[in-house]
Each structure stands twice: as C-alpha cells, then as structure tokens.
Amino acid sequence: MSMRAMGSQVPEHPLDRVLDGRMCAGCGACAYLADEVEMVDLPHIGRRPVGVRALPIMVKDQIYSVCPGAAVRSPGEKVAPSNSAELLVGPVKEVWEGWASDAETRRGASSGGIISALATYCVEQLGMRLVVHTGMEKAEPWTNSTVVSSDRAGILGNSGSRYAPSSPVEALREIEASDRPCVFIGKPCDVAAVRELRRTRPQLDRNLGLVLSFFCAGTPASAGTLHVAEHLGFHDPSSIESIKYRGDGWPGRFRVRDSAGEHGSLSYEESWGMLARQHRQLRCHMCPDGLGELSDITGGDAWHRKAEGGDGVSLVLARTELGRRTVLQAEAAGYLTLAPSDVQKVVDAQGLVARRELITPRLAALRLMGLPVPSYPGFRLWRASLSIGPLKFVREFLGTLSRAVMRGYRRPEQEEEKEAQ
Ligand SMILES: Cc1cc2nc3c(=O)[nH]c(=O)nc-3n(C[C@H](O)[C@H](O)[C@H](O)COP(=O)(O)OP(=O)(O)OC[C@H]3O[C@@H](n4cnc5c(N)ncnc54)[C@H](O)[C@@H]3O)c2cc1C
Questions:
Q1: Residue 400: inside a domain, yes or no?
Q2: Which residue's CA is the closest to the ligand 1 atom numbered 8?
Q3: Domain tally for the chain?
Q4: Of 35, 124, 282, 294, which has the fewest CB atoms closer than 10 Å, so is most exposed?
C-alpha cells in the first residue's frame, strides 16, 4: 500500500501510484480515454492529467493498461540482438542518413526535416487526411499545444523540436473519427501509448496510417523555457510572442521575440544544456526507449556529421515494414534524399543510447525507496547494464538513491509545484 493510501485505508489504484510516484510521462492517453480528464501544464513538472483520481475503477484499469508510466513493451522481445549496437538501438528494418529534399522543409526543421517531409508525403501523395503533432501554444509560447495539420503549410508551420511538455495522444479521437488514414507524430512515450491503444481499437488501428517519432533525451518542464528566456533578458512572460528552440539552420538557435519586436537568441548547445540540466521530469531519466522503438519510423540528429555544416542531417530508422516501405516510396517520389547507414552509426552519433545501460540500477534505487517503476519487457535492460561494470552500476544506483532522498521524490509532484511557484 502506498504513502497516500496508508492514511485512508483505501487501496490505491495502480494508476494513482503512477501519478504519485512521478512516473507519468504526460502523454495524454488519459484525456483520450476519459472526457472528464484534461491535460494541464504544471510549469515546474510537466503536463499532467487532471481528473484521473475520481474516475471509475474500470476506466482507470483501461488507462493503466496502456499507460507508459506503467509499462512499455519493446517489439524486440522475441528478436535477440546480435551485437551491442543492436542491443542499444533496438530492432530496425533499415537505417539511413539524409534530409528533406525540399530546402524550405529541411531549413525550417530541427535536423534534416525528415519527419515533416514524411508527413507531407503522406498527406500529398498517399491521401492521408491529417497529421496530429505539436506546436507552440500562442497564448503562452513557452508551452505547447497539440495541433492538427492537413497540408504542407500546417506541417511546416509546426516543424522543429519544442523542448517542453506535450500530450499529443490526447488528440487521437481526431484520427479515430477520420474518414481516411492519418499520421501521428509523438515522442517515444507517446507512440508507446499509441501502440497499446490501437491493439483494442480497430477504428483507431485502421486510421493510423503512419506513426512517426524522434529521438528523445527527455522533456524539460516549461519553467525551463522561461528560465532560458529570462537569461536572455525577457523578464515578463506576458510580453513574449514567440519561442523557437531549433530551426533556420542546423542545429539552429533558441529564439525569443516579444511584442515590442525585441529578439534574443542562444546557441542550441547552451539552451539545451540549461533545459536538460535542471528541468527534465523523473520519468524521462527512467526511460530505456530514447529512440522510438514503437513507431513505424523514427529520426534524430546525425551528430556524427555535424562538421559538414549548417544544413541538417538526420538519422532515419524504419522500425516496421510499413515504415521501411514508406521511406523508400517517399525517397522515390522526391521527398527525401537518403544514403544507407547502420545501427553502429546511430551509436556513434548519439550519446543518448547509453542511457539504456543505466536504467536497471536507477530502477533498483527507486524500488528500494518504495516508489513504483514501469516494467520494460523486451528491452533487455539487465544485459545492457552488464557493459557498465560493477563500479558504475553501484555509482548509478547510489546516485539515484541520494537524488531521490534529496529531491523528495516520495512527495507528490503537486506539492513540489506549489513550493516552486
Ligand atoms: C523533448 C525532445 C528531446 C529530444 N532529444 C533528442 C536527442 O536526444 N537526440 C536527438 O537526436 N534528437 C532529439 N530530439 C529530436 C530532434 O530534436 C529532432 O526533432 C529530430 O532529429 C527530428 O528532426 P526532423 O528535422 O526530422 O523533425 P521536424 O521535421 O522538425 O519535425 C519535428 C516534429 O516533431 C513535433 N514535435 C516538436 N516538439 C515536440 C514535442 N515536444 N512533443 C511531441 N512532438 C513534438 C513537431 O510538431 C514536428 O512535427 C528531441 C526532441 C524533443 C521534442
């Protein structure tokens, strides 16, 4: 029985334990499954569902069964990796490096514009109805909103990474109600929820024409964005009109504009450093799936080619046969410019892959604290952790334990939010 339930003697639902234990990723699956639930941005924490606790147990059970704070199942459960690179990257059908052939798409995007180019291809050439993705919330530009685009202008208008919380799963009904297949774009945890949801919803399953993801080192809370804006001299959030984190070249700069026409910017390295250091939610540090294993296609920065210049280059991983076919068709139709690559290049490009080796000692520390942790069948986390050796394993375990005590992970996030305000 958890901390909260002990006082009241009412057994706590495991979904409440996910929330109390800070394992909510903020994906929005709760809001898709229950009308009463709304996703709200807690500035120092992340997007969280409001109204879950009062839901009937049957609805909670339904949500829990798809919640990435409870479990994420790797599709590679039955396919043994043949080397350490495959173990860290997960199952792939094919890997490429490249970019959007359209120069405007490539320039405006985060890395090579592959995600936006594929979404555009699906709408323009495959007749897909719409794209559910994420863009800047105009009223509060340091936060995000889920957006629905149905043409190139909408897709490009919302291209580029936004390093703040997002909940695109909340808008799956747009896809479910569509008369034609659609595209979903989300973080790895979002697509993990989508993979579970489509198992039991035939109409949703039929209408998910393509599921796209991107590499993700974790979501910084929106207070982090305001912190960077303040560092640039924008002290009054209400005057901020626009915030972009990337784009207009590779890797692109963090840019702020206010209502008086003042501009400020910071390099990608500095801004991401500030955001990542202090502002990522606990769930992200416990995530073994930084590379979107449950998508059809995922992409990330080809950092190993950064010296080549200011036009973005992406790594592109087809995770499913559908993904592989779609990438090749989009290339043949002139939407993508690609060259073959492999999983070793993904490892060379991305320090992020090493996080998988650290998850076992981190989870063990939280378990010792009595905190709930997600289960991750198929990710082979024990095997991945063997490569770090006993010393690093113990260091990681003790480091997580001391952070859990110092930062008070046992108290509810809402309390921390109140204290931070
Ligand atoms: C929080 C976060 C952490 C990331 N960490 C890494 C990393 O460690 N390594 C790495 O290589 N890449 C990381 N990325 C992804 C990277 O920044 C690029 O987005 C990726 O290379 C895809 O580039 P692209 O040019 O093909 O995408 P684009 O063509 O620019 O398309 C990006 C798409 O993602 C959607 N999107 C933007 N922000 C969000 C969000 N917060 N949540 C959901 N959808 C969103 C947009 O709506 C757009 O459709 C991260 C992205 C985010 C949002």
A1: no
A2: 217
A3: 1
A4: 35
